[in-house]
Amino acid sequence: MKMANSLRGEVLKLYKNLLYLGRDYPKGADYFKKRLKNIFLKNKDVKNPEKIKELIAQGEFVMKELEALYFLRKYRAMKQRYYSDTNKTN
Description:
With 90 residues, this protein is mainly alpha-helical.
C-alpha cells in the first residue's frame, strides 16, 4: 500500500508538471489539457507498480520533449530577432 501511495504522488506530480508545460503548447492549452486528461484517465486502472513506473518514465520523456520544443521555439525567435538584420545586409 505504501508503494501505491508513493507512486500516486509521482503520478500527480507528473500530471501537474505536464499541465503546467501545456500552457504554451502550439495547438493551445485547452487542446493539450483534454489530451492529457484522456491519457491519464485511460491508464487510471493500472495497478501493477512496474507498469506504473514505465508509464511515469514515458510521461517524463514527453515532458523533456516538450521542454526541448519550447527551448527551440524560443531560440528560433531570438535568432530571428537578433540576426535577421545581419542576414539582410549580406
